C-alpha cells in the first residue's frame, strides 16, 4: 500500500512538472514581422534582438519571426496578406499607405497614439506623413529629404564661385552652362527623369521642381487632381531646358539602372557636376561607404534646392524639399494588437530611432533622437523647414506613373513641355474621371 502511495505521488509530481513545462512553453508567444531585406537588415535585427531580450527579462518572452525579402518587398507583402499569412507588424513606405488602407490591411492607430506620451516628440510632418483623412496608420522611424549635391572640383574648374548656394533655377542653369563650356567631358547636371527611375523621378525630380514653382498636385478639399497649372508647365520646362541645352544626357536614363551611371559612378567619380538627390547618399559617398569617395569632404558639397526664384516655392518659400520615409504599421488581422503596438513603441523609441539612423542613415523622425552626425544636423536645420510630402491617395501611384512618362517624352524630344502637360492631363482624366480633375489658367 505504501509503495502504491509513493507511485501515485510520483505520478502527481510528474504531471505537475509536465504541466509547468507546457505552461512555460505557452508563455512564449510569436510575433511575425516583415521589412525589406537590404542594408537596413543588420540594424533592424539588432533592435529586434533587443526587444526579445527586454520581453524575456520581463518574464513575458516573445519569439519574433522575421521575413525580410530582398526584392519585391511590397509585392511580396501584398501576396502574403492575400494568402492570409501576412505579418503582425510590417515596415511600410509612406507612399504605399493608401493602397494598404484601401485594401483594409492596416490597423488605425489613433486610439494608441492618443494615450502615448511619446507622440508629442514627433514633429507634425512626421504625424501627417503616415495619416489619411486624419487617421494615423503607421509610426515613422526614418525619413529623408532632397538637396542639390555638387562637385566642388568640377564647379571650380568651370569657373563657378564656391560655395555654390543658388537662389534660383537660372543660377543652376548658369552653372551647368559653364561646366558644359569649360569642362566638356563632364555631364553638367542630373535631375531624375523617365520611367526607368520610377518613383524617384516623381519624388526626387519632378516634385523638387514642381514645389519650387509653387505647385499643388491634389486639392484635398475638392478631392480633385490639378492636371494643368502654371507650376506644372514651369516644372516640365525645366526638363525641356535641361535636355534641350545639353546640360544632361538622355541615354543613361534609359539604361536598366540609371542611378549607377549618374550617382554610384558619375557623381562619385566626378563625371557629373551636379545632382538633385536624396540626402542619404552623403553616407554612401563616405570613404568607407558603398559608393565611397576617398576624399569626399574635399570634393563634394551640397546646397538646399532653390525655388524657381526667391519666394516662388510652395507657401512662398525660397527653398524646397520633399520627404519620404518608412514607418511601422500593424496588420488589421493580427491576433495580438497590444503586443504588436508594444513592438512598434520599442522600435520607434528615441533610442530605437537613434540606433537605426546611426546604423542605416537618413534623418531621425523624433525631436528627442540624438544623432551625432554634423551632416544630418545641418540638413535638419537648413532643409527640413521646407519639407513637403506627396499626396496620400490610392490612385497616386498611377498619377505618378504619368508624371514619369511625361518627363521621358520631354527627355527624348517626343513632346514639348506644353504637349507633355496636355498628354499628362488627358491620361490622369482617364484614370480618375473628368469630374475629378482641375485645369488652372496658364496666363
Structure notes:
- By secondary structure, the chain is an alpha/beta fold.
- The protein has two domains: 164 residues, Periplasmic binding protein-like II (D-Maltodextrin-Binding Protein, domain 2); 225 residues, D-Maltodextrin-Binding Protein, domain 2.
- It has a five-stranded mixed sheet. It has a four-stranded mixed sheet with strand order 8-11-7-12.
- Helix 2 packs antiparallel against helix 15 and helix 10 crosses helix 18.
- The N terminus is likely disordered.
Rg computed from alpha carbons, rounded to a whole number of angstroms: 26 Å
Give the full name of the CATH homologous superfamily of the largest domain.
Periplasmic binding protein-like II
Strand content: 15-25%
What order do the strands of the largest sheet run in, or round the barrel if closed? 2-1-3-15-6
Number of domains: 2
The first-level CATH class of the largest domain is given as Alpha Beta
Overall pLDDT: 92
Q: Treating each run of at least 4 consecutive H or I residues as one helix, how many helices?
A: 18
Spans of at least 5 consecutive residues whose pLDDT stays below 50 are 1-26
Shape: globular
Distance between the termini: 107 Å
Structural class: alpha/beta
Q: Got a strand count?
A: 17
Instruction: Give the fraction of residues assigned to helices.
Output: 40-55%
The CATH topology of the largest domain, please? D-Maltodextrin-Binding Protein, domain 2
CATH arch. level architecture of the largest domain = 3-Layer(aba) Sandwich
Largest sheet: 5 strands, mixed
Amino acid at each position: 500500500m505504501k509503495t502504491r502511495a509513493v507511485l501515485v505521488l510520483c505520478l502527481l509530481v510528474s504531471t505537475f512538472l509536465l504541466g509547468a513545462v507546457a505552461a512555460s512553453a505557452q508563455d512564449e508567444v510569436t510575433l511575425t514581422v516583415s521589412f525589406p531585406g537590404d542594408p537596413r537588415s543588420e540594424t533592424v535585427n539588432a533592435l529586434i534582438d533587443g526587444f526579445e531580450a527586454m520581453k524575456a527579462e520581463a518574464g513575458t518572452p516573445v519569439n519574433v519571426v522575421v521575413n525580410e525579402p530582398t526584392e519585391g518587398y511590397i509585392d511580396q507583402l501584398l501576396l502574403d496578406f492575400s494568402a492570409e499569412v501576412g505579418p503582425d507588424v510590417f515596415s511600410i513606405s509612406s507612399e504605399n499607405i493608401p493602397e494598404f488602407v484601401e485594401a483594409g490591411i492596416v490597423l488605425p492607430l489613433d486610439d494608441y497614439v492618443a494615450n502615448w506620451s511619446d507622440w508629442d516628440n514627433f514633429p507634425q510632418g512626421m504625424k501627417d506623413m503616415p495619416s489619411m483623412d486624419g487617421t494615423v496608420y503607421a509610426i515613422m522611424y526614418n525619413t529623408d529629404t532632397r538637396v542639390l549635391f555638387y562637385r566642388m572640383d568640377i564647379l571650380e574648374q568651370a569657373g563657378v564661385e564656391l560655395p555654390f548656394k543658388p537662389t534660383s533655377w537660372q543660377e543652376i542653369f548658369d552653372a551647368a552652362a559653364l561646366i558644359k563650356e569649360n569642362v566638356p567631358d563632364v555631364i553638367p547636371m542630373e535631375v531624375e527623369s523617365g520611367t526607368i527611375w520610377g518613383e524617384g523621378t516623381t519624388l526626387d525630380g519632378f516634385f523638387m521642381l514642381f514645389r519650387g514653382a509653387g505647385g499643388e498636385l491634389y486639392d484635398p478639399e475638392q478631392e480633385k487632381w490639378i492636371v494643368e497649372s502654371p507650376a506644372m508647365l514651369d516644372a516640365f520646362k525645366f526638363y525641356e531646358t535641361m535636355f534641350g541645352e545639353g546640360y544632361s544626357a538622355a541615354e543613361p536614363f534609359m539604361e536598366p539602372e540609371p542611378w549607377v551611371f549618374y550617382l554610384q559612378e558619375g557623381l562619385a567619380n566626378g563625371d557629373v557636376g551636379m545632382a538633385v538627390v536624396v540626402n542619404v547618399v552623403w553616407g554612401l559617398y563616405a570613404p568607407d561607404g558603398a559608393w565611397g569617395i576617398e576624399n569626399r569632404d574635399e570634393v563634394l558639397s551640397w546646397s538646399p534646392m532653390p525655388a524657381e526664384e526667391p519666394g516662388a516655392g510652395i507657401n512662398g518659400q525660397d527653398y524646397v524639399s520633399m520627404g519620404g520615409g518608412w514607418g511601422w504599421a500593424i496588420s488589421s488581422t493580427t491576433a495580438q494588437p497590444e503586443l504588436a503596438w508594444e513592438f512598434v513603441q520599442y522600435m520607434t523609441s528615441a533610442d530605437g530611432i537613434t540606433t537605426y539612423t546611426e546604423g542605416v542613415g537618413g534623418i531621425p523622425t523624433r525631436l528627442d533622437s540624438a544623432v551625432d552626425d554634423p551632416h544630418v544636423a545641418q540638413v535638419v536645420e537648413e532643409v527640413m523647414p521646407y519639407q513637403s510630402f506627396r499626396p496620400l491617395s490610392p490612385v497616386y501611384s498611377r498619377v505618378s506613373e504619368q508624371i514619369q512618362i511625361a518627363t521621358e517624352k520631354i527627355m527624348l524630344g517626343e513632346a514639348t513641355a506644353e504637349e507633355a502637360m496636355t498628354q499628362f492631363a488627358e491620361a490622369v482624366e482617364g484614370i480618375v474621371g473628368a469630374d475629378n480633375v482641375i485645369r488652372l489658367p496658364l496666363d
